Structure formats: C-alpha cells, structure tokens
Amino acid sequence: MVTATQLAEALEVSERTVYRDVRDLILSGVPIRGEAGVGYALSKEFDLPPLMFDEAEIEALVLGSRIVESRADPLVASAAQSVIAKVEAMLPKRLRHLISESTTFAVNLSDRHDGAERLSLLRFAIRARRTVAFRYVDGQSAKSRRQVRPLGLFFWSESWSLGAWCELRRDFRNFRLDRMDGLSVADLPFAPEPGRSIAEFFAAMRARSRTANV
Predict the structure, then answer these.
(1) CA distance 101 to 93
(2) The whole model's pTM is what?
C-alpha cells in the first residue's frame, strides 16, 4: 500500500489532489484497491491500454510536425522533431514506416533567423506575462512605438502575428511580426485584468468580423 501522503510528496501535489485523482481513476475503471487513511495499491497485472493511431492520424501528426519545423523558432521546431521520434518509438513495427515514408511536406524558402528570434522572445513574454515594446510600421507605412500585453501568436500561412492588448490604442490589436523592430521584453510581469484576456481578444475579433461583414 502507498499512502496519499507518500504519493503527494513524490508527485509534489496536495493530498487533496491525490484523493481526487484516485477517485477519478477508480470511476474510470482502473482497479485500485484501498481507501483514504489506509493507502492505495494497483494490481501488478493491470496495464494501461496502448495509445494507437491509424494511418490518417499518423499522416496528420507528421504533417503538423513538419509545418512546425518549417515555421517556428528553433526550440519549438526541435520539440516537434522530438514528439515525432517518441510517436515512432511507441508505434508497432508494422506502422513505423509511415513516419519516414510520409509524403506530405511543409516548405519554407524564406530566411527564418530574425523571425525566429522574435517568436522565441514573444513566446517567453506570453508565458511570463511580460509586456513587450517595439517599433511598428503598419500597412499604410505609418510608424509608431507600441507597448503591449502579448496574448497569443497566430500563423497566417506566410506570416506570424501577435494578438495583444495595445496600451497606446487602449484596445486589442494584431501586429505582424515582420513589421516589428527593436523588440524588448519588460523585466516585471503584469497582473491579469478583466477585459484584457485572450478570451476577450477572440470575442473582440469576432465582433469586428461581424461588423465588417454587415
């Protein structure tokens, strides 16, 4: 038997989380023996069912990985390669050839170096909730200096954009990464505020799209 306290310490979670997760596993059919205050045990004969993909799903995974490799910054591109290697390792032998023999490709003939650096910085800023500042040139060649709260990155076939809350315009905006210059990330994180979240960004974009189509 393993106690909830031991599991919580090993997994670095609370005992409450352990009790909840064990309950969910039991309800899903996993044969766990024991009870709260005593301990839990799992039969040695029990094994998780293998994760399996069909041919179309494997093709989708490989294509998705190749798109990421061709369009993302080096760290994410490397992670995409690692994911496919792990999938290939767990596939049965009769399906492994579908990885190396996939005939769907994603080609990028442009120089990714500068764009990759911006992507990497912005991914960090989004995760760490850091504001970013940059010089920007819009579609009408108007120049401005922006300070924004970064919310999400979007790939548009040939270019990336940053969805953000713009402090200058006091509204949500999309900024093309290839029109940015002098990008810098603030040292301190910003606090989440109502009206400036990624969910509200999507709501604002949908509202603008409906208005434009009227």
Answers:
(1) 14
(2) 0.69
